[in-house]
Every structure is written in structure tokens, then in C-alpha cells.
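Appendix B. Chain record.
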Amino acid sequence: DISASKKKLNLPDKKIVGYVGRVSKEKNVKLLLEAFQRLEDQENLHLLIVGGGSQLERFKQQKNCTVTGFVDNVEDYLKAMDVFVMPSLTETTSLATLEAMSSGLPVIVTKVGYMRKYVLKEHNGLFFPKNSPAVLALKIKKILDEPKLKEKLGSNARKTIAYSFSWERSINKIKRFLQKQYYS
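C-alpha cells predicted for this chain:
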């Protein structure tokens, strides 16, 4: 359960907005911080940044913020989050977003890379424009304020990953690709 996960990691029992990944310029995590700071009710919120990188220092001084640095296993941290944000300016597949979705988390992402294919607006996640901390803050607030929406997005996110990214489906896609390449 989410409270037990927070306790296990010595995180406060508050609503946790999280990010997992490299903390670097192209990941745009500073925009997440700007959006987080715009949220009202700060005493009941916490920002969790899981990952290492060149831009960690600016987060370590922030109030209501935990920065882990690099960790081997992100699963425990994902279980402690209420919402996951991927604010990248550029992305390929975003393994971190797939992991968050497989954990049943609602995700808020930029419409970049392959994320725009597997995140479906209002079904398993939400999108926000790349350089808009104000819109991101509104989307975070919406998920945190609407438990039914949070539950729906998280549940559908989990189902999306279980169905679309299962080993069996992946193997079949590879087989079809190879057959097309070498036997047509």
C-alpha cells in the first residue's frame, strides 16, 4: 500500500508528485519543480526526484522535496508516488514512464518521442505543453484532487502496459518484422 511504501522509504505521508530518470537539461526537471511550487496546499505535498545527473544540486535545497540520486531499484519509489511526471523536451521510448504506468500510476507527460503513441489523453495519462509549468501544475492538481480520475488513469495505464508491452506481444512483433524483412 502507498502509505507503507512512503514509510519504508522515510518519505512524509503527503501526496507525492514524482519523477524518475536522469536529472539533466533535456529532461527538463526544473520545469516540474516550477510547476510543483505553483501548487497550493504545499504543506500536504512532496516532490520526489529519483535519479542522478548534472542538475541535482538545485533540487537538494528545495522545501518539500526529496532527491535520491541514482538508485538500482525504482519500484519502491514508484509505489510511494501519487502521480508521475515526465517533463522531457526530447525522449525516445521513456522506460521510466513505462515503469510508472506498469506500477498503476497516472502519468503526466510531454507529447514527445514514443510517449505520444502509448499515452492516451484522459485514458491512461495526461499531456502538457513542453514549456508550460502553469499547465503542468493544473494537470497535477486535477489528478490529486480527483481520486476517481487518478484511479481510472492508473488502472488503464497498468492495463496498457500489461497488454501492449507483454513479452509475448513483443516476441510476435519481432517475428512479424523479421518475416517481412527476410521472407517477403
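Further analysis of this model is presented in Appendix C.
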